[in-house]
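Ticket 4471: requesting a sanity check on a complex prediction with 9MR. Repro inputs:
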Amino acid sequence: MHLPRLVAAAAATCCLALLPVTAATPAGASGGPSVPDRPLRQLAADDHLRVGTAVDMSALTDDAAYRRLTGSEFSTVTAENVMKWEALEPRQGEYDYAAADRLVDFARRHGQKVRGHVLVWHSQLPSWLTSGDLTADELRAVLHRHITDTVRHFKGQVWQWDVVNEAFNEDGTLRDSIWLRKLGPGYIADAFRWAHEADPHALLFYNDYNTEWTGPKSDAVYDLVRRLRAEGVPVHGVGFQGHLGIQYGLPTDMAANFARFDRLGLATAVTEADVRMEMPADAAKLATQAEGYRRLLDACLRARHCISFTVWGFTDKYSWVPDTFPGEGAANLFDEEYRPKPAYRTLQSELAGRARSARPDDAGRTRPESISQP
Ligand code: 9MR
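Returned structure tokens:
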């Protein structure tokens, strides 16, 4: 059931004063509909959902407010950068797991699960790999070893791995990457098989952006995972990154799209949600942003096997957006001073509204822990 628009609007209005999260207005204090002021992770647990954030390890180390909210608001964490190949193996054969291990340790101490990001991607590869003139056989061996070593290192500690990331173009053809060029399309199935051999209990995901709605790109992902499953390849889930921009208009058919993946018996997850805007932000843009986050969460909650909802950072203070899209920003749930934005209150309300509306005899949502593997 949807949270009534009225409540979402009231939630948005209440937060334009941008109170610090620790001193938030008690539910209903303004006389409006009550907005539950509980951490997202608690509210999501009532919906059998894990809620997560990407973590910037420098901020986690240096910024106490960032550290506190990372621990209190989220029940899963993703390494924003420190599990990428260039970070883990800057020189061939020399691994540096220190920063990633610190995140795994933080997660353990805070009762959080870890999303591993990312094993096979065309970006943030070490230069020894991209500029070295490896033959196809050598590259295949290097990829096999990277997946095996990395997944083994984190064995039992990573809940979900993004095994292959962003392999498709917008038109649904395979992206021209070093992997496709040298190894052919079979690299995708190989990556899943190798990851599964290294940790048979980790949930293995295909992850991409602009696949939240139906269209050629999400059709291609759908065809890929359906075929892989039919061939017995151990792919367990599909991640929808969820990088939206309000200037493009909000997608309307995300729930239907998530549902078709759900019907394949696959887990789904929102893996990198943020909703950016052209700056400066104003009340109307922040309200549209809140609706963007709400729609992503709604699509997830309607899919029985959607097991986690992860935002790509939670504060505008450390967002990747302004560097990549000059003139855009304000994409996160909290502003740069850690004041909750309307989007944060909307997620709280949506999560609480779902839990309240769940019937005891409801077939219900799958518990994240019970997703089975082929
Ligand atoms: O947020 C990440 C940023 O700090 C890096 O500079 C960037 C490099 O490409 O990657 C960002 O994260 C990306 C993620 O790994 C994959 N999906 C898109 C994310 C945003 O670009």
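Notes from triage: The pocket of 9MR is lined by residues 80-81, 123-124, 165, 241, 272, 320 (CB under 6 Å). Leaving this open until the requester confirms.
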